Amino acid sequence: MASEVITSSEPGYAxxxxxxRADDFWxxxxxxxxxxxxxxxxxxxxxxxxxxVLRIAWGHASHAVALSDGTAVVEGEPVGALHLxxxxxxxxxxxxxxxxxxxxxxxxxxxxxxxxxxxxxxxxDWQSVRAFYAATTLSNRLGNRQIQRLAGRYGFERIExxxxxxxxxxxxxxxxxxxxxxxxxxPAALRRQPFLRGRHELWISHATLIERYGMPDKVGQxxxxxx
Length: 227
Known about the structure:
single chain; alpha+beta; five-stranded mixed sheet; disordered N terminus; two-stranded antiparallel ribbon; disordered C terminus; 5 helices
């Protein structure tokens, strides 16, 4: 065995110690870079709820968007950008995602959307914003129809942005960012997720969001906390 060729003059380490230190370093590195990027883009937590998996930021529509409820967003219009709160996502077990993981993830997403609705109803600055979007990277094995069906369960619509070189470069950067965050916060998922993934925009109107999730009697009062 390889371990038998190590002489007594070499320092001995537990088999997982160096890996643990490497993981700690990677988490700290990715977490620091992520914090800097959140600060640059104005991404912040709108609640301190530990089960919330969303953050929010101000953004502008990079292209026109027409939603099924009649909401028509024009290019350059202020919109809300939704981002995952990676540290709060439920982790895979070593066996991978199972029914329990899927149920917990769905519960947290629904809970987060209700917290978001309560926050938006309470914050005057967000009253005039007519739509929100999430830019997601998903496996290319998922077809567009399946992605739309998944998004529709939460009131979102998949919108295809105009193709461009900038968009393709942005998608490549998103793939690396997703890989790095997954490696840091959900490493068991890494071997099940390809590096190159499709970039998708999921949109929901302010009206639809409030109609579906505006239930202040069933959620707590989230407290704004800037990143």
